Amino acid sequence: KKMKAHKISFFLILIILISKTNQKELNTFSNYDIISQTNINVHFIVDFDNKKVEGEVTISFKALEDGEVIILDTKSLIIKTIKDNTGNELDFKLDNYYRLESHGVPLKIYKEYSKDDTFDITIEYSTTKDCMAIDWLEPEQTSGGKYPFMYSQCQSILCREMLPIQDTPAVKMPVQISITVPEELIGLAAGLFVEEINNGNNKTFIYALDIPIPSYLIAIAAGDIGSQNVSERCTIYAEKTVVEKAAWEFSDTEKFLKIAENYIGEYVWEQYNILVLPPSFPFGGMENPTLTFLTPSLIAGDKSLVSVVAHEISHSWTGNLVTNENWPDFWLNEGFTMFIERKILSSYKDKDMAKLDAMVGLSNLKADIIAFGESKSFSSLEPNLLGRNPDDAFNKVPYEKGFNLLYYLENKVNNDDIFQKFMRSYIDKFKKGVVKYMDFRTFFETFIKNNVKDWEKILNDIDWDTWVFAPGFPPVENDFSNKYADEVDQAVKDFYENKLSDDFVKKFKDWFTLLKQNFLNKIKESDIELSETQLEFLNEKLELIQGKYNVEVSCSYYLTVLYHGTLSTKFEESLVDFLGKHGRINYIRPLFSALARRNKELAIKTLDKYRNFYHSIIIKYIEIDLKSL
């Protein structure tokens, strides 16, 4: 009977959500279309001993209609008290009838209001051990080994596990964050630094952002953190034992920032800082405003992986300044950001290198579409997320299919200056706000009509519905031919014909990372099994996993062997060691899936071995993958 009741409530929720499709973003319980948050002021007290955050958040609201209840998103939170402006306690309820495992529980706060009313409420609460938004690291999990470390990850709908809030990108607001930590540690947050207050055994750091942001960009971190300035507006933060290497690796950050400004317009956030996190961080980067989070796996010692910084910088315009209104429109963040990132790479390196990057991206896109299913919604730019956690659809589609659509549109316009003007006008039109697919499309079509002579032919040729709503591969395959690809193709041909010489070995070691990845990807994507001689050449001659290696290249190598090679004991030991040093989902998830297809017992054993190292987000999706194999 309980099971039946749960199913009924679940489908009732879906019916309610469907009925409001035209009004609401579907991944929030909140009634933001009735009453909207206009400011967030939150104080986090970090409790390392109990692995929780004690919080107090004051939320400013403006009523858009008359009402008598405020609904916020929560998950795994303990709500202690809720008070109004005068200090009077308000009645509230965590409505478990609407509980969804992926979305949490709506918090209903009972207060009457009339249209255009403005007021504040203050909520005291604490996180719990089930909070996936915060990763807690023991001292031995850090490079310094002396102090604990913590950091948050709120994208896409995890902010509700860190504070009660209207957890939707449809609502943006200024944010003030205070974070209290033990006196020997540093507390950081997304925002401009305001003040540090010493309180005896602890310290409080205060940050503020006047530019409105969505909830998923709220971010905090605390640990034994050092810093180095690399320019007047760029500072690199990292654990003190790592910060010097990190500052050197990312010393070109200001260059990326200036290139981006030259293409897309003024950087309005004042500071662009980077925090390099411990290796359990599950992503390459996270674009928290003024405080980008990065994985330490990007510290290659030769600046070969810094394109991730270019990507996160690009989010300062597309994602942070102009934000997708709902999660199916996530590609409006990531596709645009990939487009700007490759404009940066064109200037930082050259246009052919940017095309090679796009070629590698297209290859990765095709692999993900095949993995998710060519006929499945998750392979479309606008996936169906009804009743689903947006993270379930996380793949290369919004990034690379979105980029390919923009690249296609640029080629249709056939005038780089006009397309750049469009990009700048788009940012200017929607800055500090949110945008849906039809907002973008309507703006593009109007812009082309007003600025391009043969606009009618251009617009008639664009098959919008197939590009945006159809699953599977892009309807048009863009041409990313470049001088580097020809060189790689010849090397692959020689490899299969066993013609590679010591001269190639030397040249390979001097190749930029993208060329190495492209070389390995072409071998991985072929149907040809690798001989022992070829395996030995990849490992022994090219030294892909020996000594000082590049993690991107090593990951490509491991996948290549898992797809087409013999798994020796030495290879498996090396792979297991690699899996225990890096927590980035782009590496770990495909490697576990590929390993499980060859040796599922070893994959399960390895996951159990490193369970305490990986972020809970990683564990969730690896377990899903392993169960499906």
Name some characteristics of this structure:
629 residues, alpha+beta, 7-stranded mixed beta sheet, 19 helices, 21 strands, 22% strand, globular, disordered N terminus
Explain this structure.
This protein is an alpha+beta fold. The chain has 19 helices and 21 strands. The protein has a seven-stranded mixed sheet, with no helix packed on it. It has a five-stranded mixed sheet with strand order 15-16-17-19-18, with helices on one face. Helix 4 packs across helix 5. The longest helix is centred in the C-terminal third of the chain and has 25 residues. The protein is globular and about 80 Å long. The N terminus is likely disordered.
Topology:
Blueprint: H1 2-19, E1 35-47, E2 52-63, E3 67-74, E4 77-84, E5 92-94, E6 105-113, E7 118-127, E8 134-137, E9 149-152, E10 173-182, E11 186-189, E12 192-198, E13 202-213, E14 220-223, E15 225-231, E16 234-239, H2 243-249, H3 253-264, E17 273-276, E18 285-286, E19 291-294, H4 307-314, E20 322-324, H5 331-348, H6 351-372, H7 397-413, H8 416-430, E21 433-435, H9 437-451, H10 455-461, H11 464-469, H12 483-496, H13 502-510, H14 513-525, H15 532-541, H16 551-564, H17 569-579, H18 585-609, H19 616-628
Parallel strand pairs: 1-10, 16-17, 17-19, 20-21
Antiparallel strand pairs: 1-2, 2-7, 3-6, 4-7, 5-6, 8-9, 9-14, 10-13, 11-14, 12-13, 15-16, 18-19
Helix pairs in contact: 3-4, 3-5, 4-5, 5-6, 5-7, 6-7, 6-14, 12-14, 14-16, 16-18, 18-19
